[in-house]
Specification:
The complex is a heterodimer of chains A (117) and B (115).
Chain A lengths: L2 E3 L4 E5 L4 E3 L2 E3 L5 E8 L6 E7 L6 E3 L2 E6 L4 E6 L8 E9 L9 E2 L3 E6 L1
Parallel strand pairs in A: 2-12
Antiparallel strand pairs in A: 1-4, 3-9, 5-6, 5-10, 7-8, 8-9, 10-11, 10-12
Chain B lengths: L4 E3 L2 E4 L5 E6 L6 E8 L3 E9 L2 E5 L6 E5 L5 E5 L8 E8 L10 E2 L3 E5 L1
Parallel strand pairs in B: 2-11
Antiparallel strand pairs in B: 1-3, 3-8, 4-5, 4-9, 5-6, 7-8, 9-10, 9-11
Chain lengths: 117, 115
């Protein structure tokens, strides 16, 4: 069965610090997708990135970057020069064919990031 | 392009009642999924609908049901409400085909409180 672990429950940093959110996943499938979502206090999940299992290239988007390592089953997320507006709960998620649908996401428990001014 | 909309945003019910939540997907999206978010269990998949058919269902009791209409709008229903059903219910929509078919975009959620 698939599983996503976000061991960091809460992280606090001071503005402009870099911060890395960890995500470890388990799946028996060779084809799967990994996602990161941001949930601000308003509650809506905001899509940040999707990565498929065949693409281990790291990605950078502005201050955000993602490091995908199949060898360690990890998909970590780094925010560079954090800002107060980055404060939110961040979720890592997995979808695979074993779950019955490519649209069934298995979420980690989330990491509450607080960026202090 | 308008995002996923959910109504109502907040709802208060009492035990034993039933409730219906509504979700309108992004225009052109034909797949709608529902998730329940609680502090104890986190985000859990409820079900997915496509073309008015339930395509996948999570591990929830039969009190939770849903449907999808021909315009892709979806409703979920919870009957005989229990205190533990208090949660944020999130709806997500996605394209059915193509390279981005499993990118799900979420609505703001409906916060249900059961007293």
């Amino acid at each position: 069965a698939q599983k996503v672990t976000q061991a960091q429950t809460e992280i606090s940093v001071v503005e402009k610090e870099d911060v890395t959110l960890d995500c470890v996943y388990e799946t028996r499938d060779t084809t799967y997708y990994l996602f990161w979502y941001k949930q601000p206090p308003s509650g809506e999940l905001v899509f940040l990135i999707r990565r498929n299992s065949f693409d281990e290239q790291n990605e950078i988007s502005g201050r955000y970057s993602w490091n995908f390592q199949k060898s360690t089953s990890s998909f970590n997320f780094t925010i560079t020069a954090s800002q107060v507006v980055d404060s939110a709960v961040y979720f890592c998620a997995l979808s695979d064919t074993d779950s019955g649908s490519a649209r069934q996401l298995t979420f980690g428990s989330g990491t509450q990031l607080t960026v202090l001014p | 392009k308008a995002g996923v909309t959910q109504t109502p945003r907040y709802l208060i019910k009492t035990r034993g009642q039933q409730v219906t939540l509504s979700c309108s997907p992004i225009s052109g999206h034909r797949s709608v999924s529902w998730y329940q978010q609680t502090p104890g269990q986190g985000l859990q998949f409820l079900f997915e609908y496509f073309s008015e058919t339930q395509r996948n269902k999570g591990n929830f009791p039969g009190r939770f049901s849903g449907r999808q209409f021909s315009n892709s709008r979806s409703e979920m229903n919870v009957s005989t409400l229990e205190l533990g059903d208090s949660a944020l219910y999130l709806c997500a929509s996605s394209f059915e085909q193509g390279a981005r078919s499993n990118e799900q975009f979420f609505g703001p959620g409906t916060r249900l409180t059961v007293l």
